[in-house]
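One such given next:

>
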Amino acid sequence: MFNRTIMYAKLAWVYAKGICGFRRKVYDLTFVYVPEDKLWYIDMPWPGDRYNLAMVAGSNHLLSFLDTKKENRVSVLVRPSKKKLTSMMGYFECVKQFSGLFAGATYKVNGLEGFTREIWICPVTLTVLGHYPQYIYIKQITVNH
């Protein structure tokens, strides 16, 4: 019981820090595929259940689409924005269709040749971006690991 209370307190802190904390212009994020689970996860410290970090409902398909070398790892630069940006060379655009604080957000993907699905991002996004931006610009990067 005590350990569970501590875990929930840590989770509350992570969310509060994300929502109220300093926001960056660009985020460097890495996602990993775990074959045993057949799931993609964001690679970040998390005090709760790792399945809360799973990429589902389109985000998993996006990551599989980007993982052309089948390395089970995708790194991206993410640029959230309140308004549409121009001249984002190498980035594709995600436009918010719907969002709810506890419901996550659905985005339409534009400018990514061959990818035609919408993606859903879960409320864990709030711990990273602090909000569900109207626009998200994403650029895949190569990282030596």
